Amino acid sequence: ILSVSRFEVSGSKKQLELIRAFTDMCKQYPENIRGWKLILVGGSTPGNSYLEALLEAVAEAQCPIEIIPNAAVSEIKEYYRRAAIFWHACGLDEARPERVEHFGMTTVEAMQNYCVPIVIDGGGQREIVQHGDSGFRFSTLQELKSLSLAIMVDKERCQHMAAQAFSRSQL
Fold first, then answer.
1. How many CA atoms lie within 13 A of 54 on its CB side?
2. Which of 106, 37, 35, 41 is nearest to 67 (CA)?
3. 169: enclosing H helix or E strand
């Protein structure tokens, strides 16, 4: 599972929530999670307190989670190629429209690499991801976990949705 977004000091990209969701899944469904990893890739600035909090959360989680700050473009492309699922949560629990992703180029990049997007049901993500066809949209972390598990345990469905995501990204 891949997430690509800046590690904003404000936490607006919601990576801490993604870490918590994946940690919950590891604890509640260890058999289903075996072999899966969450990778968070993004840009950061020196002394970023949010990035430090994320690293602490990963250390406490004791789950297969990696944080990759300031990766080269070639590395990011490789992460996209290797991922099966793409998570994006910017806008989760936000009431103000300006705090929701307006477009979401990283979602399209993931789809171009046959990743199934599971993204927040808001902003530009609604225009990109056709729920249940080329990916899923969620409103709560519980929905994120349930939708993720549904395709993690069903390889055929995951492959079909990945192909649909790729087709959708070409429009």
1. 31
2. 41
3. helix 155-169
Q: Is 128 left (phi over 0), alpha (psi -120 to 50) or beta?
A: alpha
Q: What is the pLDDT along the chain (171 residues), one digit of tens a residue?
A: 999 999 999 999 999 999 999 999 999 999 999 999 999 999 999 999 999 999 999 999 999 999 999 999 999 999 999 999 999 999 999 888 788 887 889 999 999 999 999 999 999 999 999 999 999 999 999 999 999 999 999 999 999 999 999 999 998
Integer angstrom CA distances of residue 155 from 58, 88, 152, 160: 27, 21, 7, 9
What does pTM read for this prediction? 0.96
